[in-house]
Design a protein that fits this description.
Elements: H1 2-7, E1 25-30, E2 33-35, E3 50-52, E4 56-58, E5 63-65, E6 81-90, E7 95-102, E8 119-123, E9 130-134, E10 144-150, H2 156-163, E11 170-177, E12 190-195, H3 199-211, E13 218-224, H4 233-242, E14 246-252, E15 262-263, H5 266-275, E16 282-287, H6 289-301, E17 309-313
Helix pairs in contact: 5-6
The site of flavin-adenine dinucleotide has 27 residues, from strand 9, strand 10 and helix 2.
Length: 317
């Protein structure tokens, strides 16, 4: 489907093109198609016509509903831009902070221009491999971009970061992309849930709210498997100081030592929050598909409508 759309001058949202990242998901409401294999855990509802467009081969004309408006469809290939690694440091036991400086460009300028919550695609130099990473910092004129990246054993980008990448290396960026952004018109309380490196876009949103000294009540639930995976705890403290209405729960699923905070998953911490009653929040959740599934089930069980739930999933693998 992606090839057919591109032949017609429509560059639909996609990244890995191999059924892993989930970026190209859509719904087919009419027509016949076959569907190739997808990664275990990929979130598509095949029963109701859910497809990954990169795995979908049409057998007739298809009527497809995309999860983004027509204006978000690019009409020409997206031009990459250059950036240089300016910092690469560990963050917890299995994650890194990667900071880039965008290369000034006569047409595109130098600014790191994005909306908190969005992501960019980053290429491994000398290859065609690209991966999506959400910005953890704020948009800025200096062209600074900060990612929080969990190193997956055996993963292509993870292995490059762990073994080869060095400060000064040049990389290629595409973006920004994504519709996981704040509904700033809402007056409801907000609940932010970040699982592992799903914390990155949530951090960008909270930094944005802190910049404007937002006074709406909000809760941050930061979930990790083990306490040695925790990172950015100093940043969370700074956010709490800047946002007096922010409550923070750090949920550790399998603590290894004497952990005095919440024991359980981020979804369980969310259920506990909702059990306390109060106005139903807007929910912003980013993490692996299982976390999104659990949070959506908890929200549904507490009567929160889907329109109040904003999700970004970090791929199936
Ligand atoms: C919109 C979006 C935003 C994202 N934001 C972030 C973010 O902010 N931070 C972050 O850390 N991640 C983020 N991700 C996830 C990120 O894009 C990558 O998927 C992730 O970093 C893994 O990439 P990789 O190249 O290291 O691993 P991959 O090479 O993609 O492999 C993933 C896993 O599969 C395993 N694997 C690979 N090939 C095989 C095989 N043939 N057989 C069996 N197993 C295999 C690997 O061992 C690894 O564990 C985001 C994803 C999306 C879609
Ligand atoms: S582009 Fe289809 S799943 Fe990644």
């Amino acid at each position: 489907m992606l090839d057919a759309a591109e032949a017609a001058g429509l560059y639909l949202h996609a990244m890995c093109r191999e059924g892993t990242c989930g970026v190209c998901h859509a719904h087919v409401s009419e027509g016949r198609y076959t569907h190739g294999p997808i990664a275990e855990g990929a979130l598509i509802d095949a029963q109701s016509g859910g497809v990954l467009l990169c795995r979908c081969r049409p057998q007739s004309d298809l009527l497809i509903a995309l999860p983004y408006p027509l204006a978000d469809i690019h009409r020409q290939p997206i031009q990459p831009r250059g950036a240089t690694i300016v910092e690469l440091a560990s963050a917890g036991s299995d994650a890194v902070v990667l900071k880039l400086a965008v290369t000034p460009d006569a047409k595109l300028g130098q600014a790191a221009d994005f909306v908190p919550g969005q992501y960019m695609e980053v290429g491994i130099p000398g290859t065609t491999i690209r991966r999506a990473y959400s910005m953890a910092n704020l948009p800025n004129w200096d062209g600074q971009i900060e990612f929080l990246i969990r190193l997956k054993p055996g993963g292509a980008f993870s292995s490059w970061l762990a073994k080869q990448a060095r400060v000064g290396d040049k990389v290629e960026l595409r973006g920004p992309f994504g519709r996981f952004v704040l509904d700033e018109s809402s007056t409801r309380p907000r609940c932010f849930i970040g699982g592992g490196c799903g914390f990155a876009p949530v951090l960008s949103m909270l930094r944005h709210l802190a910049e404007f000294q937002d006074m709406q009540s909000s809760t941050l639930i930061f979930g990790v498997d083990r306490e040695d995976e925790l990172f950015a705890t100093d940043v969370v403290k700074e956010l709490q100081a800047a946002l007096p209405m922010l409550r923070v729960t750090v949920a550790v699923w399998h603590p290894q030592g004497a952990w005095h905070g919440f024991v359980g998953t981020a979804a369980e911490a969310f259920a506990k929050l909702l059990d306390q009653g109060g106005e139903q929040p807007d929910v912003y959740v980013c993490g692996p598909p299982k976390l999104l599934d659990s949070v959506q089930s908890v929200a549904a069980a507490h009567g929160i409508p889907p329109s109040q739930i904003f999700t970004e999933h970090l791929g199936a693998a």
